[in-house]
Amino acid sequence: MNGLIPLQCIVSALALKTAFGCPAVVCSSIHRLALSVCVFALSTLGPALGQIEGLHQRIDGAAQADLPWLSASPTEPAQALRRLSLDLRNTIPTIEEIDAFVAEPIEGRWERWVDRFLADPSYRERMVDWYDKTLLQRRPYQNVDRATWIAYLRSAVDSRTPIDALLQGIVQSAWWNKSARAQQRFFLERGGDAHALARDVGRVFFGKDLQCAQCHDHPQVDDYLQIDYHGLLAYVSASSLAEGKTTDEKGAEQKLQMYIEKAAGDAPFESVFNKGVPFRSATRGPGQIELFEPYMAPDQRYESAVRDGAFGGLPNAPVQSRRSLLAAQLQASNREFSENWANRLWALMFGRGLIHPLDMRHFDNPASNPKLMGILTDSLIESKFDPTLILRQIALSATYQRGRRMPVEAQVDARGVLQVQSPEAIAWRAQLTETLAVAKSAMPGAESSWQEKQSAYDAAADAWREIQKTRINVRVELDAAEAGFNDANKKWNDALAAFDKASAAHQAIAKKISLLDEAAQKLEQAKALGDDLEIQASIVSTRGKIDALKPQVIAAEQAAVAAATARDATLAAKETKRVEWKTVVDRLTPVEQQLQQADTAMILAREGFQASRRFAATLSQRVERLQRVATWFDRSAEAAAAGVQLAQLSTQMPSMQEALLVANNEKAAMEQTSVALQATMAETNKQLEPVTSKGKELLSQQEKLVAAKSQLTDAQGLVADAGPIQAAIAQIDASLTTRQTDLLAVDAIVKQLQANLGEMQKKLGENNLLIANAQSKVQAQQMAFDTHKASIETLKTQADKFAQECAMQKLEVDQHCQAIFAVAPERALSPEQFGWSILTATNILSSYIDNEKAELDKNVALAPDAPASEQQARILQSVRQARDKLQGNIDTFSSLYSSGVGQTNDDFFASPDQALFVANGGSVYGWAAPSGSNLTHRAIQTPDPRTAVELLARGLLSRPASSSELEWIPELIGKNPESKSAVFHELVWGILAGVEFRVYP
Amino acid sequence: MTKRARYACGSMDHALNRRRFLGASGLVGAAGLLGGVASLSSKVAGAIPKNDYRVVVFNMHGGLSQLESWDPKPSTNTGGPFRAIPTSVPGIHISELLPKTAKQMHHLCLLRGVNTAEDDHGKGAYMMLTGRRQTPAAEYPQVGSVAAKMLHDDQTGLPGHIIITPGGGGGRGNEAAYLGPKFNSIHLGGDKPPLNSNKPDAIADDAEARRHLLRRKINEQYLSQRRSAITDAYTHSYEQALKLMERREVFDVSKEPQAAQDKYGSSELGRQCLVARRLLENGVSFIQITHSNYDTHNDNFNFHIEQVGEFDLAYATFIEDLAERGMLEKTLVVVLSEFGRTPNINLYYGRDHWSKAWSVAMAGAKVVQGAAFGQTNKEGTEVVDGQVDHGDIFHTILRGVGVDSSQSLIVDGRELPIADPAAEPIWKVLV
User: Fold this and answer.
1) Which of A200, A486, A604, A748 lies at a C-alpha separation of 20 to 30 Å from A897?
2) What value does the mean pLDDT take over residues A196-202?
3) pTM > 0.90
4) B243 domain-assigned
5) DSSP secondary-structure letter at B250?
6) What would the CATH number be for the domain defined by A443-643?
């Protein structure tokens, strides 16, 4: 899209649209679209567009991120349209609009739809809602009814009243009569309380919440001073609520609270932390010097004439109005005012300001993009505070259409860890390091610069305070002189009243005498016409009365003269006091001139201080943001390094395990050998046993044989025949020999076995040594393995920690990117957007509009050839009537989902009572039911469930159905063919109750 | 030369402040996402350890007469017709209109030296419930919101801050100020459960299950792409709602045995006390019960016979029940009004607004039991000993349930003390 389209092109494009009956070109078949979007052409785009036309390009130029890889690419077009519709119309687009948009050629499409939405009656209602929430912050209707207030805002929007003019009108509202009741609402609903209003004048008009600077300089915000607060307070301190009397339409007496203004007088104040040093402040606009108005004598401070249409019982208007002075601040010449409203318009489109929170504008909370803030402020001034022109340009910017995803996320894993080794990431890191270094290098200079400027400011402020002391003293004298004058004035007023009374008494008697004299003369004339005794008697009586009154009249005259003298004397005394008062004023004037000079110097120095401090804060914010990104890289690198190390350690694990196993096996084998040896030894021992016992047996036989032989030998001589004995001896000998041989054999075997055993014992001993070695080897291996395993665990924990920190840093970086609008800020729908979107999605809103239009057409049919303007007016009226009828439903959403009275933003929160309302309140589920030609009905009627799912995704969520939705939903319906209607009803409810519907795309 | 004000208390603030603004542009969410969803929906940063203490406040709407309740002055010009009766604590006498309560005195701690110097209903109520005087340019959270914030565990599935009003119509209150709407009260109308906590009859059980299944399935896809503190809190709120529906019978006194119902009596207040006990048992941190209306400019004595009589039965049963169940150790029960009533009896046998010398009763948790602290003079026209005000009482309630009342919360970069730093707890009545 070429941003340099000259104005004529825009105007002719709009004219073209009107000529074609607008949306009909795209989808003439769809009545609903024609009805709700038909053109309310921006009949005039304003006179001095000049630079405004290219604003969207300058926005994009300024919003270019220093690190392009953090700046999101455009969001999907239909989703962008949903965002645009929510911002400009407070509701989602209809399915017809989505379909028409998608079908249109891309060239110039976005601009056409921006203009189409701006021309929609809903845009006007959106602006009414914005003004309402911004100015009244959800305060209940206590003094002004809703109809009056909304009608006022609607007429302001219809007539394209510039923001500054609207606010000036509110501040200067003609409180003395009923005509400006609606404008008064800003003050009335805040109870007219000066402190409440000082706070909200600061917050709403200037974006500064000075609440904590009432009793001392703000304890936390160095930029908010007590003199700032009292400067604002001075605008409203003379105003308060008073009851005025009037008559209503039926002529009955009506009493109304009015926010009236009296002549101002500034009370002294001091810091609770610096008691005994009083200050006074006349009005001081934010960033301005204190403004001294000419001093007027107390008897000249009010207008003498009663204003037209004035209420009974209220004082006349003061000659000098502090509210007019405030109105004078609500215009381009006050940069704080202009910047605040530029910021608020930006917030309307993004859900957050360039400066955020909106009412915390101060030097330590600078714009996230000061250049952009400057451009936007200049453009708002240039547009003459036309919100539509600015909103249109913001909408046209690529910045507005950015998506939610940082491109860097392509290189981020599911845990939030950046793939730092990728070529892209390496290049990014280099760029980041350089950018960060440059930004950091500027910090010391910025820091010392603001400190220097602060010293200069402190000096200027001290000089100002010195003169302020003198002024305070003279002001005290002035108070005394004023009291003296008031006293004299009162005496004069008393004398005046006394004189009036005396004079009236004198005149009454004189009149009586003159009437009696007249009567006497008449009687004389009557008597001349014929003498009559009775008349004569009357004459005498009358004359007598006159004579009797004469001394009285003299006394009365003398009293009157005396009263006149006294009056003149008090007047002279009063005038003397006036002169005295004036003398003090004349002494005060040069002091105040001096003070103003010092003030001017102080404000100039303060501006310097503020600018340098703001610069330092901006820089510091930027460094913090870059630092966050750097930390993300660092943690990611650490996470990656930990990962690599972990992988390495993990690869060593199998070989270590193997070695451990081998050692264990070796040890086991050796142990096996020992066991075998021991077994063999046991076996050998077992073999040894019979042999040994056989040996023992042989020995015992041998002994027995020897014993027998010895007995036989002894017995030879005792018997006659020694033959048999000798034979027996010989036999024994033979046996002995055999035994001996056997014994030798046995002995040989035993020796052999024992030798074997000894051998084995030796082997066993050797093997045991080996086993001990193997054991220590195994232990060593096990230890190495355990250590390794432990370090893997440690590393894993560490890696997890890094990854967690990465996730955290990613969130932080994302938040920072949202703050500089490099990605679209995450935001929930406002309560009103949520409500209207549900009513749009379920066709309730459009059927109400249809009904209203039909009703209007029935009462007064429009001629087919009625001018376009009349037709547009009819549609606008239908839309407004429909919305008014549905407002009660929206109020329910407001009460459940809003942050409540007095908040600047609707901070998102979720609570079970909200969910209970959506689930069981009846309305949402009821609206989701099939009816008329709504989406639920159409989905049920669609034969192919996949087509039905696509229909619902487009119509309710402004996007194509996902592949998984196209799968599981038709499957579910396939399983429950008999409850198709019910399932679609529940599905529509489920989508409306779902999180995607609740938040911005 | 006068420098920019640097306060004794402020040097730390200052050091914090620049950092806070430089860093705090809405970055609270980050920690939250990783820390679960419990703390996400508030604007207030910083985690606060929870304990299992609870608070019940009886708000005697209109202004209970101290002379017909906690601080009788029989046989004096101001005392009115009623006698004082002995209680379970020797030496402490209360009005004969509270015979059942007298038997529970050993659990109670009377504060008889309350002086709040505010005779306007609205302002007095504001002071007693927020512990501060109302100022136009600031809003403070009520004790219920503070208690819910400091004590309530979301996992109970029940709201932390409940206000029971006779005939009240459900919905949500607006007492949380800067703590955020999450800590606003849920209003219960009488002894009825919260609004919309019942599944509509038109939705069959299987349809109910299916529609929530569909909702979850649809969320699942979205959350797999984009999850944040906001999306977590939102989806969680629906699950909380379902949990609350499951626990709906907690609100239903008919589930109590008949004997218990009989004990509490048939008055609406009695049933509310029984609901309150059930809610306490189920983890609700703060319950306020309103008893109305004590604004007796006319016919003070007859009104008090009736009202205090109803209160006596319900309240005494409630205290006894909590004590028997061992719940009183962890539950602080406070009986307060916006102010007391004049010792002087007016022409209409009424008593008017009186904030100079009146009484508040506490029982349970960390507050001493069986005591009367503070004293008024013979005719009850002035505090002569132990004078306390709304700020002290607010601190004492918090301390009484183990909350450090001197701490501050950081909200949007502002440091806000949870109780008025100019006041402090009544240490003598705290254990």
Assistant:
1) A200
2) 94
3) no
4) no
5) G
6) 1.10.287.620
Residues of A within 8 A of B194 (CB-CB) are 913, 916
- Report angle CA A868, A872, A877 to the nearest 5 degrees: 150
Task: Calculate how close chain B gets to A832, using CA atoms only, in Å.
Answer: 17
d(CA B426, CA B388): 8
- CB-CB: which of B2, B211, B230 is closest to A274? B2
> Does residue B244 lie within any of the structural domains?
no
State the pLDDT at residue B170: 58
**Which residues in A916-953 are b (16+ Cβ under 10 Å) and which e?**
bbbbbbebbbebbbbeeebbbbbbbebeebeebbbbbb
Q: How many CB atoms lie within 10 A of CB A504?
A: 11
The verdict on residue B3 lying in a domain is no
User: Cα dihedral angle (A453, A455, A460, A465), rounded to 10 degrees?
Assistant: 140
Residue from the list B181, B194, B223 with its beta carbon closest to the beta carbon of A909: B181
Q: Which of A823, A806, A805 is nearest to A814 (CA)?
A: A823
pLDDT of residue A498: 95
Helix (H) or strand (E) holding A290: strand A290-291
CATH of the domain at B344: 3.40.720
Whether B336 is in a domain gets the answer yes
Structure tokens at B384: 């002569």
The DSSP output letter for A934 is: -
Q: DSSP label at B427?
A: G
The ipTM of this complex is 0.80
A70-94: per-residue pLDDT in tens? 999 999 999 999 999 999 999 999 9
> Which residues of chain B are within 8 Å of residue A406 when distances are taken between CB atoms?
none
For the record, the structure tokens of A148 come out as 């009056």
**Residue A998 to residue B234, Cβ atoms within 8 A:** yes
- Probe site for chain A from B214, B228, B414 (most A CB atoms < 10 A): B214
**Interface with A, mutate which of B42, B134, B230 (most A CBs under 10 A):** B230
What's the rounded Cα separation, in Å, for the pair B396 and B401? 9
Residue B251 identity: F
Backbone angles phi, psi at A802, to 5 degrees: -60, -45
The residues near A273 (Cβ < 8 Å, ≥ 6 apart) are: A216, B5, B7
At a CB cut-off of 8 Å and minimum separation 6, what does B49 contact?
Answer: none
Cβ contact B186–A913 (<8 Å): yes
Q: How far apart are CA B116 and CA A947, in angstroms?
A: 69
Q: What angle do CA A948, A954, A955 make, to 5 degrees?
A: 85
**Which tokens sit at A181?**
């009741």
Taking CA atoms, what residue in B is nearest to A898? B181
Question: Chain A residues with CB inside 8 Å of B17's CB?
Answer: 220-222, 364
Helix axes A963-975, A980-992, angle to 10 degrees: 140
Q: B197 and A271: CB-CB below 8 Å?
A: no
Number of neighbours of residue A734 by Cβ within 10 angstroms: 11
Nearest CA in chain B to A616: B22
A923's CB contacts (< 8 A; 6+ apart) are A889, A892, A917
Contact (CB<8Å) B222/A895: no
d(CA A602, CA A458): 8
Nearest to B412 among A277, A357, A968 (CB): A357
For chain B, how many structural domains are there in total?
A: 1
User: Across the strands, what pairs with A561?
Assistant: none
Q: A450: which chain B residues are within 8 Å (Cβ-Cβ)?
A: none
Nearest in space to B417 (alpha carbons), one of B180, B178, B184, B116: B178
pLDDT digits (tens, 9 = 90+) for B171-220: 677 788 888 878 888 888 767 788 899 999 989 999 999 999 999 999 99
pLDDT tens digits along B43-80: 343 444 567 899 999 999 999 999 999 999 999 999 99
Give which of B28, B161, B211 to mutate to test A binding, by max A Cβ within 10 Å.
B211
Cβ <8 Å between B2 and A277? yes
